[in-house]
Design goal:
By secondary structure, this protein is α+β, with helices and mostly antiparallel strands. It folds into two domains: 150 residues, no CATH class; 45 residues, no CATH class. It is built from seven helices and seven strands. The strands form three sheets. Strands 1-2-3 form a three-stranded antiparallel sheet. Strands 4-5 form a two-stranded antiparallel ribbon. β4 and β5 form a beta hairpin. The longest helix has 20 residues. The radius of gyration is 19 Å and the shape is globular. 29% of the residues are buried.
Length: 203
């Protein structure tokens, strides 16, 4: 379960809205899981620090749920108001990309390394019993993404496409020896190498 926003809007650089309580994480309705979507949102290979636009931020929050803790409670309640600065959202995005590159999930979930002083790990989540199943309720979408990224890094499937012109370089591969996110990216790199080789032969 992930807290989901409603009546979401941007006012003076701040996302504002109310929580709908929670939505069940359902990968079948997503083209990409949230950590892949956030890492690639607004990515431009021609710019060193490209981030999501305001419209892309709204799209992500509406589709995947709320980033950041919205209250002092572990689980956000129905109709509870929340605010999140766009600068903070984009900071989450940068930290996620860095964690992906360095293979350190804590760089995303705990960038200031605050937990080191506590001497234990803390994850804002709760468990509920639903019929004969246990249901994990996380406080925000970023904690859910941390779980997914940790899983994908551990399996060796969290990859960065080796095509420097790729617009969606962060991907989860089906095989841990993959180096390109797609066949078109592999073809583009191979074609570039072939053209370079032909030019060298002409010299």
């Amino acid at each position: 379960m992930i807290p989901a926003p409603k009546s979401l809007r941007i006012e003076r650089g701040v996302l504002k809205g109310h929580s709908s309580g929670g939505q069940r994480a359902d990968a079948s309705r997503w083209k990409n899981p949230p950590h892949v979507a956030l890492a690639n949102l607004g990515y431009d290979p021609a710019k060193d620090d490209s981030v999501a636009s305001d419209e892309e931020v709204l799209w992500f929050m509406r589709r995947y749920g709320s980033l950041g803790l919205s209250s002092d409670d572990v689980i956000v309640k129905e109709n509870e108001p929340f605010e999140l600065g766009l600068l903070i959202f984009r900071s989450y995005q940068r930290q996620l990309r860095e964690a992906w590159r360095t293979r350190r999930v804590q760089g995303f979930l705990d960038p200031s390394n605050l937990k080191a002083g506590l001497g234990f790990e803390f994850m804002p989540a709760d468990w509920a019993l639903r019929g004969k199943r246990m249901e994990l309720r996380v406080a925000s979408c970023d904690w859910y993404m941390g779980i997914l990224l940790a899983r994908d890094l551990a399996s060796g499937c969290a990859k960065i496409c080796q095509n420097p012109a790729c617009h969606s370089p962060y991907f989860v591969a089906e095989r841990n020896d993959a180096i390109y996110c797609s066949h078109p990216c592999a073809v583009a790199v191979n074609n570039k190498k072939m053209l370079a080789a032909r030019k060298n032969r002409r010299k």
